[in-house]
Every structure is written in structure tokens, then in C-alpha cells.
Amino acid sequence: METHYIAITGCRHYYGSKPLKVGLPVQLIKEPDNEYDAEAIAVHVMPLGKVGYVANSTHTVPRGCYSAGRIYDTIKNYAYGIIRFVFQDTAIVELLQNKELYIEIKMEVHEDTSLKYRQPRF
């Protein structure tokens, strides 16, 4: 199977890029009623919610990445991915082939986070 990448932009309007970490699972949600972009796809991270949008402009789509317009008709209402790179206010996400991979990665991230918080601080 071919690997596809998208870029998350607009992070500065939400939480910035600070919460975006390599290996973090994301959910892509179509926004057909978006007044600014008919092909808008929001990017959500649990438990924060919306952290940005899939880039959809020639000025914001990095080389090698798909635009929101290019993937819009290939997904139903949702798609899933995992952050592979983060730089400045942009993150590059590898699209996952199915929801099961997303759930598996999400569970692993949750378990790792839970363990970190349970460790005693000295």
C-alpha cells in the first residue's frame, strides 16, 4: 500500500504546535458546512479537540503532501493518521489505512502517558 501524508496548518489559532508530538494519533473530520473552505478537513487530537486543519492551499501544502481537496472525496466523514514530523507551526501526518490502527496507536499513547504520570517525582 502506498503511504500518503498531509500537513496540519492553522495550529496557531488553537493550541499552537506545542501539543503536537511525533507518534500522536489524530482524527480528520470533514467540515462540509465550513464557510471558508468547501473541502475543509479539521484535525482533532484527544482530549484537546480541534488543533488545526489539513492544508489546502498551494502556499501551505508542503511538497510530498496531499491537500485537503485531494483527499476530501477519498474519505467518508472521518479519517485517521499519526503525526510523523513537527516543525514550527506545521505537523506532517501519515494517513492510516483503517480505524483499527488508529485505535491501537491511541491505546499505546494513552498507556504511555498514564505510566508517565504514575511515576514518582523526586
Please give a structural write-up.
The chain has one domain: 2-Layer Sandwich (Alpha-Beta Plaits). 20% of the residues lie in helices and 31% in strands. The protein is globular and about 30 Å long. It comes from Sporomusa acidovorans (strain ATCC 49682 / DSM 3132 / Mol). Keywords: Hydrolase, Metal-binding.
**N→C terminal distance:** 47 Å
What proportion of the residues is helical, as a percent range? Answer: 10-25%
Regions with little confidence, pLDDT below 50 for 5+ residues:
113-122
Rg is 15 Å
Quaternary organisation of the protein chains: single chain
One letter per element, helices H and strands E, the order comes to EEEEHEEH
**CATH class bucket:** Alpha Beta
Supply the number of structural domains: 1
CATH architecture: 2-Layer Sandwich
Structural class: alpha+beta
Number of helices: 2
Strand content: 25-35%
- Biggest sheet, spatial arrangement of strands: 1-4-3-2-5-6
For the sheet with most strands, the description reads: 6 strands, antiparallel, barrel
